[in-house]
Amino acid sequence: MGDAKIRYAEGEIGKLYGFTGGDVPPGTTPLTEEHDGSLTEAGKKYCEHRKLNPHPETIRILFGQQSSYVISDAVQASIKNQETRVERHNQAKAISERLRLDWLAQDKAYQDAVKERK
Questions:
Q1: Sequence-ordered alpha helix ranges (H) in the chain
Q2: 26, 63, 96, 97: which has the fewest C-beta neighbours closer than 10 Å?
C-alpha cells in the first residue's frame, strides 16, 4: 500500500483531487492513468486548455499548489472579502434609501410651504 501511486482527477471548477487505486472519486474525471501514470485524454485536454506542458508532473505540481495552506487561506480571505462586499453594498443601499425618503420629505415640506405662501 505504501508504494501506491497517487493519481489525480479534476472535479468542479478545475479543482484537483489526489487519490490512489482504481476508484475514481465520484463527480470527478481522472487525469492520470492507473497503471503507468501517464495522462488520460481528459488530462491532456486539461493541460491544453490551461496552456500547460502536457506531463503528469505538471498536474502533480498544480495539485500541490491548490492544496497548500497558502492557497486555501487566500480562498478563505477571498470568500470573506466577497461577504463583506455584499454587506457593505446592502448598507449603502439602506443609507441611500433613507436619504431618498428624507429628501422626499424635505421636498414635500418645501412644496407645502410654497403653497401656504400663495
A1: 41-49, 56-67, 69-117
A2: 26
φ/ψ of 111, rounded to 5, equals -65, -40
Note the pLDDT tens digit of each residue in 55-79: 889 888 888 888 777 777 777 888 8
Q: Is 82 left (phi over 0), alpha (psi -120 to 50) or beta?
A: alpha
List, for residues 33-58, the tens digit of each pLDDT value.
888 878 999 999 989 988 988 888 98
Q: Is-above-0.85 flag for pTM? A: no
Long-range (24+ apart) CB contacts under 8 A made by 23-32 are 31/7, 31/59, 32/7, 32/8, 32/56, 32/59
Q: Which CA distances in Å does 102 have to 39, 85, 107, 115?
A: 65, 26, 9, 20
Which residues does residue 9 pair with via DSSP β-bridges, in sequence order?
A: 17, 30
DSSP bridge pairs for 32: 39
